[in-house]
Design goal:
The protein is built from 16 helices and eight strands. A hairpin with a 4-residue loop joins β3 and β4. The protein folds into four domains: 5-71, 2-Layer Sandwich (Translation Initiation Factor Eif1); 82-193, DNA polymerase, domain 1; 209-364, hpI Integrase, Chain A, CATH 1.10.443; 374-401, no CATH class. It is an alpha+beta fold and 401 residues long. The protein has helices spanning 26-34, 52-63, 81-98, 102-117, 122-139, 149-160, 167-183, 209-217, 222-234, 238-242, 273-286, 304-317, 326-339, 344-351, 356-359, 376-384, and strands at 5-12, 15-21, 38-40, 45-49, 68-71, 249-250, 255-258, 267-270.
Length: 401
């Protein structure tokens, strides 16, 4: 059993802290740094500002490695309903998957091989596999040759609706089943008759330029700041940042080569001049071996979950109340470029969009042209106050009409 990690509550100055104590262990130290904790020589502990979210993050990160002991400190509260429900579904799925017949297990292995043969991304393969695993569990051993469209409809009604899947997840389920039907030619599921729900069209959340500055200023850990700065300054997707290797960054030419981005497309993006100093300082401090940002093990990529975790903390410190994800920084990058007058075709190229229609969504959130539009009420009041108009009262109070 590895050494314990002891969590306690304490004060440094006037600020309440979570103290993280353990016997010397380099991996534990790396985790503390990833969490944004600081070392206190006077207290002899690592510390981080106290919050329920920070407590959950620390417990989750160290809980994978060793036993976490809470000393004079309450355990993290119950997980939010959705997260608790997702974890419960995952545990139930793992138990039921072990009870599947050898025929079903062989069919699932063949399905995964079939998807990889179509050169789909590993992320897509994993997602489709989970949906078809759930579908297989739901069928309770029913032979593939006897499957019909009604089996799919009942699965959606009994499982997808019960789990409150979003429209996008619902579409993934249908896409996975279409591939499943293509793989199992003998089944009676007719692909063309399976209609996916229309995708919701939500406008993206965008940070103002001041909010971006506040976010970076309130991200104190150098690695975390470098990650957020690169996501915003180059408009990267989280997967592109996680898989970015050092040899693809050309600081002298201020270019970054994105290898096999979404849709297996390569592209170049711009490295901001203001990012270069932060980048070199980060390299001198952390000395990554292969990837731009690495996890606990040298040469291994960082976790997207960790990025979302510290981003949430930074938003709280910056008092940003919007629902911010790593992709929000990409949305903000594109919108701010559009507001600066950059042509939409260049933005499409920088973002790696295949279709201009995808990039066009940023025209709906850009303020550049909207601010030039005058409200008809303002126009009407100007006409009323013009010299040609005898009624020069511009008020819109009740008595003026």
């Amino acid at each position: 059993m590895r050494k314990q990690v002891i969590l306690s509550r304490g004060m440094i100055g006037k600020q309440q802290k979570i103290f993280i104590s353990f016997q010397y262990d380099q991996e534990f130290i790396d985790v503390a740094r990833h969490l944004g904790a600081f070392w206190s020589s006077s207290e002899g502990v690592w510390h981080i500002p106290y919050s329920k979210q920070a407590l959950e993050d620390i417990h989750r990160s160290y809980g994978r490695l060793t036993q976490v002991v809470f000393k004079d400190l309450g355990r993290p509260e119950q997980l939010p309903e959705k997260q608790h429900r997702d974890q419960l579904v995952k545990r139930q799925r793992e138990v039921k998957a072990k009870a599947l017949s050898n025929i079903d297990k062989a069919n699932l292995r063949g399905y995964v091989k079939f998807l990889r043969g179509k050169v789909l991304s590993e992320s897509t393969v994993r997602t489709y596999y989970v949906h078809i695993l759930d579908f297989t569990i739901y069928l309770k051993g029913k032979p593939v040759a006897e499957l019909v469209n009604r089996d799919v409809e009942k699965f959606v009604e009994d499982v997808c609706v019960e789990r409150r899947y979003s429209v996008s997840t619902h579409r993934q389920v249908i896409s996975a089943i279409k591939q499943f039907a293509s793989f199992n030619k003998e089944c009676g599921i007719e692909n063309l008759s399976l209609e996916r729900p229309r995708k919701s069209r939500f406008l993206p959340t965008v940070l103002s330029k001041q909010e971006v500055i506040d976010l970076l200023r309130n991200t104190r850990n150098t690695k975390h700041k470098a990650i957020l700065a690169l996501l915003y300054s180059s408009g990267l997707r989280i997967g592109e940042l996680i898989n970015l290797e050092l040899h693809d960054i050309d600081a002298d030419r201020k270019q970054i080569f994105i290898r096999s981005g979404k849709g297996r497309k390569d592209r170049y993006v711009i490295m901001a001049e203001s990012f270069r100093q932060l980048f070199h300082g980060y390299l001198m401090t952390y000395r990554p071996l292969r990837y731009f940002v690495e996890g606990n093990s040298p040469g291994q990529p960082y976790s997207p979950v960790s990025v979302r975790s510290f981003l949430k903390r930074s938003c709280k410190l910056a008092r940003i109340n919007k629902n911010v994800t790593p992709h929000t920084l990409r949305h903000s990058y594109a919108t701010h470029l559009l507001e600066q007058g950059v042509d939409l075709r260049y933005i499409q190229e920088l973002l790696g969009h295949s279709r201009p229609e995808t990039t066009m969504i940023y025209t709906h959130v850009s303020k550049k042209d909207m601010l030039k539009i005058e409200s008809p009420l303002d126009t009407l009041l100007k006409q009323m106050t013009s010299p040609q108009n005898k009624n020069n009262n511009p008020s819109i109070s009740r008595d003026s009409f």
